[in-house]
Specification:
single chain; mainly beta; 13-stranded antiparallel sheet; 42% strand; elongated
Length: 488
């Protein structure tokens, strides 16, 4: 009967007859001799109990023969192994190099322009005060010679409390050929006192809005366009001040907007400015600071920039902006061309040129202290003394040593009707102090005017009214002048 046995050297199994148990067999797998049926541990113990007849030399010879046989059988594998090692490139280990530490980052030192020194500057908000601005504007319209506008404008507080101011003064316009020599049209002069815009400002003197000027009918269209372009551009450079200390090279942002329709583009413009403090200098005992201006122009839609503005401004401590020079450029999408213009504004305190604040054609005499364009509507309140009159009220600071002249004119439009204006002057207690309904007050159709003098100074109010709830647009002018003397 065949049984299964295992080689005690390599554990290879064989099937042999029972008669071979206990006999020595040679393993066909490893070539070692083992006793059939003997376990591996017993075979090992026996293998070390060699008879004394076996010499060490014989053992060494046997090991050498077996090693030679194994090397012969594995010759192909050994050859491939050594051949691959000889063909492989020898790679030298790269010596480790310690990189030096990077140098510390050094911020570039700010260098001011020539003539200016580095140093902090206090660019504070300045309440609005009387200032004279010399404004020059060069318009470069499409396919036309450049238009040069020169204006000397007085920024004069309109109410005495710095809540509003007006631009007054002469304006001159001329058109020059492309060669810059030959004039293609005669110069046009206009005095803007009669139709000067009134601006409202916040507590820091920044522009909030304006009343559009009421141009006289005789004003030439080119003068109107140039004047409105000058006003719109002046508004774009009426920069809000950071009202804090700024360091050399420091940047801050500001936003300005034209208060009315810019005639060059037919819509309002907004400019997003980046201002950079460039340096300081001493001028006539005051510190001046140079500020670099870079801006992007945006249209009414607000979708992306349509142009750019670059220039500089000088800020004088205790006074505000004293000089602004800006070059503008706008891409006209419809025509695919560029519209460019340049503006320079120089400002000095006060009114050194003694610019007149009213023209001979003005309907009121003296200094125009209040100028309003408005509309009376059926929703406006009524006076207690005049139940059928809807009114608009405007505050007016009144002095006791001045004479005041009030003029109101109805200006019919497509959406408003015609009416005979009614003027009422209310004292500080809210009572009617003077009225155009009184006998002897001039009223000619759509125009009404009256004069008054207050014996007590204070905050009065001018009421412009319309009877029978008729809506209507109007222009209001209030002039202030000194009391007449006996020789007048």
């Amino acid at each position: 009967m065949a049984i299964r046995i295992a080689c005690s050297h390599c554990d290879e199994t064989f099937r042999v007859s029972e008669g071979k148990l206990g006999k020595k067999l040679r393993c066909s797998s490893c070539g070692e001799t083992f006793v059939a049926g003997e376990t591996r541990s017993k075979s090992r113990r026996r293998s070390w109990n060699l008879p004394n007849a076996v010499s060490p030399g014989l053992l060494f010879a046997g090991v050498a023969v077996i090693t030679g046989i194994m090397l012969f059988l594995m010759r192909d594998r050994i050859y491939r192994m050594f051949a691959s090692k000889e063909s492989a490139p020898i790679v030298q280990a790269t010596p480790k190099i310690t990189e030096p530490a990077p140098p510390a980052k050094v911020e570039p030192r700010f260098e001011p322009p020539s003539g200016w020194s580095a140093g902090d500057a206090r660019i504070a908000s300045i309440p609005h005060a009387e200032r004279t601005s010399t404004l020059t504007l060069v318009l470069l319209p499409r396919e036309k010679p450049p238009v040069h506008l020169a204006a000397t404008l007085l920024e004069s507080p309109a109410t005495g409390d710095a809540s509003a101011f007006r631009l007054l003064g002469p304006i001159r316009l001329k058109q020059v050929a492309a060669d810059g020599v030959r004039e293609t049209s005669t110069e046009s002069d206009a005095r803007v006192a009669a139709w000067s815009p009134t601006y409202r400002v916040d507590e820091f003197g920044n522009l909030k809005d304006r009343s559009d000027p009421a141009f006289p009918e005789a004003t030439k269209p080119e003068v109107k366009r140039a004047a409105l372009s000058g006003m719109g551009t002046f508004e774009l450079v009426a920069l809000p001040m950071p009202n804090r200390s700024v360091k050399p090279g420091e940047k801050w942002t500001a936003t300005t907007q034209s208060q009315g329709i810019h005639p060059l583009l037919g819509h309002r413009l907004r400019c997003e400015w980046t201002c950079t403090h460039q340096g300081n200098r001493d001028a006539a005992g005051r510190t001046e600071s140079l500020v670099k201006l870079e801006g992007t122009l945006h249209g009414a839609s607000g979708a992306g920039a349509i142009g750019s503005a670059r220039g500089e401004a000088v800020f004088r401590s205790g006074f505000g902006w004293s000089r602004v020079s800006i070059a503008f450029g706008v891409s006209d999408v419809e025509s695919g061309s560029e519209i460019a213009w340049e503006l320079n504004v120089d400002r000095v305190p006060g009114n050194p040129l003694r610019i007149g604040t009213a023209s001979p054609s003005s309907p009121v005499r003296g200094i125009v202290v209040l100028q309003i364009q408005g509309v009376v509507t059926p929703l406006d309140p009524v006076l207690v003394e005049q139940r059928d009159v809807r009114q608009k009220l405007f505050p007016l600071k009144v002095r006791s040593d001045r004479m005041y002249e009030v003029y109101v004119e109805n200006v019919p439009t497509a959406s408003t009707g015609s009416f005979v204006p009614i003027i009422n002057i209310l004292d500080p207690a809210g009572r009617v102090f003077r009225s155009s309904d009184a006998p002897g007050v001039a009223s000619q159709g759509s125009r009404t005017s009256l004069q008054f003098r207050a014996m007590t100074p204070g905050l009065y109010a001018v009421s412009v009214g319309s009877r029978a709830q008729v809506p209507g647009a109007f222009v209001l002018l209030v002039g202030e002048r000194e009391l007449p003397t006996a020789s007048d």
